[in-house]
Write a structure and sequence with these properties.
Number of helices: 5
CATH superfamily: lambda repressor-like DNA-binding domains
Order of helices and strands: HHHHH
Number of strands: 0
Largest sheet: none
CATH topology: 434 Repressor (Amino-terminal Domain)
CATH class: Mainly Alpha
Helix content: 40-55%
Strand content: under 5%
Length: about 90
């Protein structure tokens, strides 16, 4: 199971290493600052696509996620740390 708090902390740490403010990173990713904050605080889990975009921006090796026992959620899987399931378009 994906640990949203660990993932969020990792993203936040890497963002700070790059000296990026939340507003700057969110704008570069095309998302709101509040959504990025929710990801960093473990309230929301990013989709695989969003996580890939974040990883590229902050030079995060996705293999690090495996080493820290964080599993990537596939599209259509769980989107919130609370376990709410996203609906897939048919």
């Amino acid at each position: 199971m994906l640990d949203g708090k660990k993932l969020g902390a990792l993203i936040k740490d890497k963002r700070k290493e790059k000296h990026l403010k939340q507003t700057e990173m969110a704008k570069a990713l095309g998302m709101s600052r509040t959504y990025l904050s929710d990801i960093e605080n473990g309230r929301y889990l990013p989709s695989t696509k969003t996580l890939s975009r974040i990883a590229i921006l902050i030079n995060l090796d996705l293999n690090v996620l495996k080493m820290t026992e964080i599993q990537v959620v596939e599209e259509g899987g769980y989107d919130r740390a609370a376990g709410t399931c996203r609906r897939q378009a048919l």
